[in-house]
Amino acid sequence: MALLTALLAFLYHLPHVYKWLLRPYYVASLFMSVAFLAIRKTPGVCDHLSTQREDGNPCDFDWREVEILMFLSAIVMMKNRRAITVEQHVGNIILFSKVANVLLFFRLDIRLGLLYLTLCIVFLMTCKPPLYMGPEYIKYFSDKTIDDELERDGRVTWIVEFFANWSPECQSFASVYADLSLKYNCAGLKFGKVDIGRYGEVSKKYKVSASPLSKQLPSLVIFQGGKEVMRRPQVDKKGRAVSWTFTEENIIREFNLNELYQKSKKLSKTKGAAADKAALSQFPPVLEEEEPEQEVVGAQEEDLETKKDK
């Protein structure tokens, strides 16, 4: 049943995945991920490769190569158990496929290993995974604006994501956070983001480490009246982040977003009514002037008498 559910989910998202995989970054990554397989299986190329197979067939994997591939496949499966988006699943597969290619090329020929490793380094330095560019109701803070925005209105609850552009976890979480902002954003509940990889002072003030080893990226913090109320992941006394999975269901449950949203909608209605009253007060009602009917009638009679005298 679980396998059927996963298959149906994949088929449902297939058009999105297909469009997403056609981006240049993923096309290039795909070719790099299957580089060793292509060389080992391509006739005319594989004939010149060395092999440890008993039958001497250079166009098929030997037992050591199969062992390396199986081991890294197991690691990918373990990593993908915590993946929450398609991007994370594909990213893990690409990453460990490249690691497998490095090991296999070095084992085959040190010159091919150095060439492939150099290619990976150049690719890492010049190509970045595409950032999420979809719809969202999120305000981006800087080190100069975050404090003022959080303290501007004590009735407004802020959910702020502390992230870094270089973090794969933050990149994968971007679409989830954007979906939450589209569902729950209102006048009394707002969503914000701040890049602590860029603003180091914000990282120190709000005690969110930007180090890859801290595992605090991304961090979600709720602020009410400018003061922190809750954060995930939590940090223990030694400064280490407690493991937590950033799924949409976990965030809704832990942050009690449904209840927060209902309370915030009441604030939104209150603000709307106050704005209407303020608008009406700026424009006082216009009184219609009554026409002086008697004076008009009197003027008409005088005109008739004048005409008769003539």
Describe the structure.
It is found in: Mitochondrion membrane. Residues 287-304 have a biased composition (Acidic residues). It is a single-pass type I membrane protein. One of its GO terms (molecular function) is disulfide oxidoreductase activity. This protein is an alpha/beta fold and 310 residues long. It has helices spanning 2-12, 14-21, 24-33, 35-41, 63-80, 86-108, 110-126, 146-151, 168-184, 200-205, 248-254, 257-282, 293-309; strands at residues 138-141, 157-163, 189-195, 219-224, 227-232. Helix 9 (168-184) links the parallel strand 2 and strand 3 (189-195).
Which structural traits does this protein have?
single chain, 310 residues, alpha/beta, five-stranded mixed β-sheet, 5 strands
